Fold this sequence. Notes:
Elements: E1 3-5, E2 8-10, E3 17-21, E4 28-33, H1 37-56, H2 59-75, H3 77-88, H4 92-129, E5 141-145, H5 146-162, H6 181-196, E6 200-203, E7 225-228, H7 235-238, E8 245-251, H8 254-262, E9 266-267, E10 269-272, H9 277-286, E11 291-294, E12 309-310
Parallel strand pairs: 5-8, 7-8, 10-11
Antiparallel strand pairs: 1-2, 3-4, 6-7, 9-12
Helix pairs in contact: 2-4, 3-4, 4-5
Amino acid sequence: MHQYIGGRLRRALGEQTAPVIDPATGRTVAVADLATVADVDAAVCAARGAFPQWSRATPGERSAALHRLADLLDERSGELARVESSQTGKPIRLSGGFDVPGTVDNVAFFAGAARHLEAAIHGAVAGSLINTGQDCTAVTRAYVHRSLFDEFVDGVAELYAKVRLGDPFDEATDLGPLSSYRQRDSVAGYVERARGYGAKIVVGGERPAQLRGTPYADGAYCRPTLVTGVSQDSEIVRQEIFGPVLVALPFDGDDEAIRLANDTPYGLAASAWTKDLVRAHRAGRELAAGCVWINDHIPILSEMPHGGFKQSGYGKDMSAYSFEEYTQVKHVMHDLTGIARKSWHRTVFMD
């Protein structure tokens, strides 16, 4: 049994080995090389060398690699089960029916988690930039579990940097200008004040350099802007900016995430991204918003009601519920019996 370091099998640098004994028969089923300090150093160096490329890989690329690993493990599951049983004495039914399938499932799970994070990143980018962020249901705050926070921020920043600004009539344009120079200045003011109280502007926060020398250089454009490092009570978190600005904040548990998400005077729309159905149902139930999407943001259907909670307005538009907003109900009762003395009159007077 050799070592796998730097993408290849290799013998240990030392000469020491150890037998692998089948506890069921006592026979030697393999001989394993024993690693030396130099072997460990080589493994660490290989990992450090691989890390930059792996850390720059997109969630989709990581997902594809992990799915490939899961497929390879699954293809050799029978062999792996036999090796496991010969080394440990486990019944083959346990190794083949539980241990190896569990390993394959675990790798596939992390492949799915990587893909799911990619979906959340793309959803946040699309949801925050629709209508140049001038949309009442746009993504303005993203609460991300601390374990995924840095990857989420890096992913959003990478996509934001690729957004094409320019002529609104050009089909290649991703993001047009804000609706007015006044609105552009308002958005810029939020960002600059946030910078002043210690926020980190990860990307954006200034006039788009890509428009210099074009007819749109003096337009009311604002680069997609990602902000981190601010507190829940900061202005940029609590106010509706109405521009292409996303604020990302970390959380440590679901209770905290829901509390922070609901800590706003507004409640028009929210979304939750999770593969866990229990957590998804809880988010749908407890997020105080008139519209809650699970694993998507902003898809509007004419059949579904659209309206908010708290200071996000009253009533609904769209769907059958919207008719109630355009209807004034009147109660008209017409007796057709011709009976002078109604039975209920007796409850008032007897004659």
